[in-house]
Amino acid sequence: MRALPLLLLIYPFAEIAALVALAGRIGGFAVFMLVILSSLLGLWMLRNQKLGALLTLGSVLRQGDKVSLYSLLWPLRYALAGLLFLLPGLLSDLAAILLLLPLKGPDIQLRTAGPSPGPAAGPAQNGDIIEGEYHRVDEDTPPGRRLQ
């Protein structure tokens, strides 16, 4: 937990160093245009992910009993990737691209049916039948003793 503030302090310097190193190789204008285009891409992704998230969730739930956890979290990954594209820098763009990769994670079991029936709901097995007689007794309870 102590490393998180240190990483938050180092991150901007690492982004600037990566931008300067890339600008030395391909030129400052190209790096500037790369930053502008990635920011526009992130803005576009965040603006157009509202309905897409609902459609993705609906299609994932229609797939069947087993669904990948990563496909359930796809709308969240997509929004986080859009936010990372908005940030200027190469490291954030690389992290956004990694979030957008179609990875298949572990399957989770969806419970599509209702709750499992209890022992009384199923058919009787091996002498589970108890026979007997009953009669109903209705007591007239005075109004002061009733629970309400």
TrEMBL record:
InterPro entries: FxsA. The keyword Acyltransferase does not apply. Coiled coil: none annotated. Keywords: Membrane, Transmembrane, Transmembrane helix. Residues 113-124 have a biased composition (Low complexity). Residues 132-148 have a biased composition (Basic and acidic residues). The keyword Repeat does not apply. NCBIfam families: PRK11463.1-2. This is Membrane protein FxsA.
